[in-house]
Amino acid sequence: MIVLLVTCLVALLSPSVHSAGSSADYTHWPKIAPTFCNGSKQSPINIVTSSVQGNSKLTSFTFTGFDDNSTFISITNSGDSVVVSLDDEKVAVKGGDLPGLYNAKQFHLHWGNGSSSPGSEHTVDGKQYPMELHIVSVHSKYNGSVSAALAANDSTGLAVLGFFIEATSEQNKTKSWDILTSFLTSIPNSGSTTTDIMDQITLDSLLEGVDRTKYYRYQGSLTTPDCNEVVIWTVFKDPIKVSQNLIKRFSTTTNFKAASTSVLMTNNFRGVQPLNGRVVTSQVPQPAGRAHQRLHPPQPYPALPGWKPVELYSICWIR
If you placed Cys at 137, which of 51, 102, 145, 247 could pair as Cys (CB 3.0 to 4.6 Å)? Predict the structure, then answer.
């Protein structure tokens, strides 16, 4: 039953469309799924920081189960990504102006071609990061059913948390990523999966170093066909730091198709889409002066030697 559910979820959220093994395939998607893939609220986008508007409603999140190492069910080669299925009864997110509780179903990744080219889907002021991680969650009113959220065409049906991944030379900070990528050799071809990842790592450990109070928000879509415009996107500003050799494992270990002789899975990202008038918002930083005043309330000035208190009077003239 678990394997069947995992297979259905992967099919819904990660359809195999990279027939040529290239990010350029996304240009054909409007023909594959014309109802949504040529819509006006498509993802990913380029975030222009000078145009981002402040939103005081974008408060902190509450993450449930992100510190639980029993939430990873399996890791699968979906044919266009690496997908880690999560126990959605244990992992959830709320807050941050999300309209309710969202149960996390899975996370997957997008990458380029090792060290030669980056592969994040979203960009910031034109900068593309080496990789991007997406945690896909469904509103609790759909009882964990992604297909129900898609069928309802609910613009708030899904919430995706996006995390940029940046290369680092600090090997000791990427232990969890070393464990995660060690399973890639077990899923080299499309359709292959393993449950050995269970009880190994946590979401918190993979997201180490990211300030999850700093993020961008906009309304968008899934980044693979059918490109349904049902996603509240949260893109975090701080990148995850992963060593370059671990990033390279994704583009040198996995394949797009079932046969081991098929093309290596590289550049599995969609290009940025037009904003079409959408507004990207961000949390409003607390002014430093106000925060300082709240933490350190005014204190009376200390008396100086030889000084005596003086009474002051105010005189009002009445005409």
Answer: 102
